[in-house]
Amino acid sequence: MERAWIRPSSTAAPSSFTPFARGVIEAYEKVYGKLKVIPVSFREDVYENDQVSLDLYPTGGAGRFDIFVKYKGRGEL
């Protein structure tokens, strides 16, 4: 399973979690198809389908968060 980690640039101006995260989700849906939302906790959601999984976790204020990406169906790298 291939994994990627996405984080906005630390030098970029702080942005709201919602617009950036929504943009990432929409971009992945254009390529991989509709993603199902799976609530993990109060602050964390996983968006996934049979090809990809996006784990969105806010890491603090000022628009900082992590997005962990897992590509399914590919051998472990």
Strand order of the largest sheet: 1-5-4-3-2
Weakly predicted, low-confidence segments? 8-15
Beta-strand segment tally? 5
The total count of helices amounts to 1
Query: Describe the biggest sheet?
Result: 5 strands, antiparallel
Helix content percent band: 10-25%
As a whole number of angstroms, the C-alpha radius of gyration is: 13 Å
- Ends apart, CA distance between termini: 6 Å
CATH class: Alpha Beta
Shape: globular
Please tell me about this protein's structure.
- The chain is of the alpha+beta class and 77 residues long.
- It has one domain: TATA-Binding Protein (2-Layer Sandwich).
- The protein contains one helix and five strands; from the N terminus they run βαββββ.
- About 10% of the residues have low confidence.
- The termini are close together.
- 21% of the residues lie in helices and 35% in strands.
Quick overview:
This protein is α+β, with helices and mostly antiparallel strands and 77 residues long. Helices cover 21% and strands 35% of the residues.
What are the SSEs and their pairings?
Elements: E1 2-6, H1 17-32, E2 36-39, E3 45-48, E4 52-58, E5 65-71
Antiparallel strand pairs: 1-5, 2-3, 3-4, 4-5
Key traits:
alpha+beta; five-stranded antiparallel sheet; TATA-Binding Protein; 77 residues; single chain; 5 strands
